[in-house]
Fold this sequence. Notes:
globular
Amino acid sequence: MLVLLAAMAGGWLCRGLLLRALRARHPLEFEGLGRPSNRNLESLLPKHGDRQLRFWKYIWGDQPLQVADPSVTRLAWAARGCDVAMVASVVVLFMTAGR
């Protein structure tokens, strides 16, 4: 359970830092994502779904690897790692709850 909470917090932090880095250092990349904000990405409203999907595809695609800035690449990999840890902890939680 603690791993799940840590992965969620880490993912939120990495995505926020990635947005800040893109906004400050790579405005064209940020513009291509539809200028998302933390509030838009956390919202459950359907009108923000397109931005959320674009940002998710950006993180899991190869675009962060093509940016010459190593901090963007590291933050994207950290966000991916948090996603994997979150999924793994949910699977383990369900497996142990089923016993």
